[in-house]
Amino acid sequence: GVFLYNHLQQKVRNAEALAQKYKQQQEALSAQLQVVYEHRSRLERSLQKERGEHKKTKEDFLVYKLEAQEALNKEKQDSMNRYGALSSQHKILKNQHDDVKKQLLDLQLQHNSLKLEHRKTLESQSQKYAQLQQEKDSEVTNLQDTVFKLREESKLLRKAHQEVHSQLLNAQAQMEEFRQLKEALQKMPGFR
Fold first, then answer.
1. Which residues fall in a coiled-coil region (predicted)?
2. E strands within the chain?
């Protein structure tokens, strides 16, 4: 009985020690569980906060996406309008370019024609100028000959004029002598 009693006491002590051990483990687990609960609570609050922020971010993103889509559509419409305007302007400029090109070809043809005509006119003028120069040289030569002849004639006429003038002076002197002689004769009584 003592042995059994001692054995039972030993088992009780072992059981109490084991119970104490389990109690300590339970307390440790309770503390750990409390920490886990608190951590979970913080995580749930953080998750709730993240969900709220995510929801707000998602709403902001949807608003941004809608605004971006509207802006893109508006930009696309503006681009199409600009493209249409530029296309019309391009057609107008292309037509103007074709007109200017045609005018340039016409002007080049006209320029070539005028150039040919100018060359012909220049050649004709050069021939006329050479002919006129030749005629002028010939006329100058004839005029020089005529001037030389006229100078010779002028010399002869001066000489003849001097001779006539001398003869006139002689004739006047003779007339004066005749007049004086006549007066002298008229004064003579017998001659009358």
1. 5-60, 90-142
2. none
